[in-house]
Amino acid sequence: MELIIYLLIGAIAGFTAGLFGVGGGLIIVPILYVVFTHLNYDPSVIMHMAVGTSLATIIVTSISSVSAHHKKGAVLWNVVRNLAPGLVVGAFLGAGIADLLSGQGLQLLIGFFALWVAFKMFTGANAVVDPTKHLPSTGVQVLAGGGIGVASAIFGIGGGSLTVPFLNKCGVVMQKSVATSAACGLPIALAGALGFMWFGHATRVEVPNTIGYIHIYAFIGISVMSFITAKVGAKVAHILSPAMLKKCFAGLLTTVGLYFVVKGLSSFF
């Protein structure tokens, strides 16, 4: 039964990853939090395990999603190369920062962050990308990658929630922003997952079938299905209009954001 749940999570998360370029983390983290809670795992590490396992699954999801986007010629590989060094270093550091935070602190951070990004995306849904804007210098892109990497590891996402708006602001159209974001999810996920394994091992997590903060069965189940459905989501992303894609993206973030803000605040009352 537990494996079936992980397979279902993977199916939904994979489709979401391909559609929005968010790595599926915004779906995986809240569902894993609920599943781990019902399995009566140690409450002090449940949120960290949800985030760490989410990052691990994004390794597989990103490979599937980016291959579909690459066939459409939508991935800006020069931008991926510029962002990658910062993404890797930032993601590992982000895992260390997340390890220092309480579960409730992580919930509130993820919740408010998702709501903020949703607001920014929805209000700019019908905005036309300014063709006169250009990507910043390589050095600035590396620094931007560092910031995106840190935040992505803390939130257990593939970076799409930050990479997509960043590229949009630099004049990159939505479809190419989503595709490039999907490619950026791989270095984030690799470095972040290693970080959560490392810091989780140091914390000595007492939960069965885990390596650090990563749950092995959840990783396998979610990865198998997400690899398949991510390609379907990527195809749909190229059918929808940029404005519709932004509104759907904002709706998803709002739902997740409200969930975690409510959960985080309820622990204080």
Provide keyphrases for this structure.
two-stranded antiparallel sheet, 79% helix, 269 residues, mainly alpha, 2 strands
> What's the helix count?
10
The major β-sheet equals: 2 strands, antiparallel
Which spans have pLDDT < 50 for at least 5 consecutive residues? none
Topology pattern, helix = H, strand = E: HHHHHHHHEEHH
Termini distance?
A: 33 Å
Question: What's the total count of β strands?
Answer: 2
What is the SS-derived class? mainly alpha
The shape, in one word, is globular
**What oligomeric assembly is this protein in?**
single chain
Question: What proportion of the residues form beta strands (DSSP E)?
Answer: under 5%
In order across it, which strands form the biggest sheet? Answer: 1-2
Helix fraction, binned, reads: over 70%
Please state the average pLDDT score.
87
Number of domains: 1
Protein name: Probable membrane transporter protein
Membrane topology: Multi-pass membrane protein
Subcellular location: Cell membrane; Membrane
Transmembrane segments: 6-33, 45-63, 83-101, 108-129, 141-166, 178-199, 211-232, 244-262
